[in-house]
Amino acid sequence: MRKGRAGQPLLSVILPTYNEERRLGPTLERVTSYLASQPYTWELLVVDDGSVDQTVLTARVFAEQWPQMRILTVERNGGKGDAVRRGVFAARGAYTLFSDADLATPISEVGRVLPLLQGDADVVIGSRAMPDSRIVTAQPLRRRVMGRVFRRLVHGLALRGIRDSQCGFKGFRTTAARHIFGQLTIDRFAFDVEVLLLAQELGYRTREIGVAWADVPGTTVSPLRDSARMLRDIYGMRGGVRGRLDAARTLAPGAHDRTVSLITVHQTSGRDDLPLGRAIETARRAADTVVVEQRPGMALVTALVSLGSAEVETQGPIRGRHYRRLIGIAMPRQGSA
User: Fold this and answer.
1) Residues 97 and 225 in one domain
2) Among 119-133, 137-151, 209-223, the range of highest mean pLDDT
3) 77 in a domain, yes or no?
């Protein structure tokens, strides 16, 4: 197995957390113990999504013992999709995997995902619905019924060819992950569906494999509230994704191409008087910068840069603590030398 280039971990593992103080300690024990036993280099990113308990403190205690561990925090809860996206753009590994903090799928399943990513797969997703899936502890009947209904709706409205979009154990080539998550618009629990739909529409090779899975009490998902929100999010998703993507966004970066960086800017403050509009107008006047799309609180900006790179630092007029910036993968400019 390849071990990763000097200075770069082979694998980045992302754990999104929200009010996980009770189980984060045992989770980190198992994850660090497993990763430390592997022959490759790795890093662990805990991305806390605005917890109001002692989750971050628990993570910091472990980070003092493990230099491979980093903690990313946000002040306000933005959703699991937002937390995973932040982890993806902070990841340094050649491959990136995110796992639910409850470890419903054991971290040892990394051993099945990573070889596929090192082979011909760009995306590998764990599944509870494959013939070789192993359900150690089943969900309560009510949740199983809701899950089946939701899967059928997902298949009919948005995502075809995938049996289980919601298992929280997914791995990516990091370059593919940045390209996919750079296009993501859904921040909460339906983000998995959009991620997989984007992977399909962008032409990435996706493998679904059966994994071990056990129901873990204490989920933060509300069956009624979150199911309604997820249905709202997936309705029209397929057409929306296809409408957003164009040929310029689907190309992979070359080593030294003149490139276009996709930058998504979101307003995070609840204030109505923040000058996002003025910032965008300034961006419109900046050299080699074009505002592709703008709607209240959000803008998609392209910035022309001179070297191909998976990470392009934002230099320009859109700054300030009231905005968060997500750097999209750099892609060749059509017709460039």
Assistant:
1) yes
2) 119-133
3) yes
